[in-house]
Amino acid sequence: MGGETVELRVAMTCEGCSGAVTRILGRLQGVASFDVSLETQKVTVQIADDAALTPEGVLEAVAKAGKQTEKWA
Amino acid sequence: MGGETVELRVAMTCEGCSGAVTRILGRLQGVASFDVSLETQKVTVQIADDAALTPEGVLEAVAKAGKQTEKWA
């Protein structure tokens, strides 16, 4: 498990929105690194190699922000 | 339990932010009604009379949006 890169499309309309997603990912266990782009609406998450976190788990955590969230591709 | 009115101060900077809080409250079990004001930064939640939901539970659910959340008063 772990090691995957997850790409999501998240509806974010201001820096408050992207900041909320940033805070959620910052406290999510198993995230090695991440990038949140308000401009492209793209959220990229690198799962740590030995993490129990799954791509679905990442999507669910971000969706709890209350924003429309879906897989990028 | 239940029946309480909960007032929270939530940092929201655009309609994407307030919409996210609205979606979270709309799917939270035990909420009888609620109001989200972007202008005043105030979120008011009426817990249903027979609900197991607590004021702390409301605060935790809203805080999962990733926004600064605290009791209003």
TrEMBL record, chains A, B:
Transmembrane regions listed in the UniProt entry: none
One term of GO molecular function: copper chaperone activity
PROSITE patterns: HMA_2 (PS50846)
Keyword field contains Ion transport: yes
One Gene Ontology CC term in the entry: cytosol
Keywords for this protein: Chaperone, Copper, Copper transport, Ion transport, Metal-binding, Transport
InterPro entries, alphabetized: Copper_transport_ATOX1-like, HMA_dom, HMA_dom_sf
All residue ranges annotated as the HMA domain in the record: 3-70
Family assignment from sequence similarity: Belongs to the ATX1 family.
Alphabetized Pfam families for the sequence: HMA (PF00403)
Protein name: HMA domain-containing protein
One BP annotation, GO: copper ion transport
Domain of life: Eukaryota
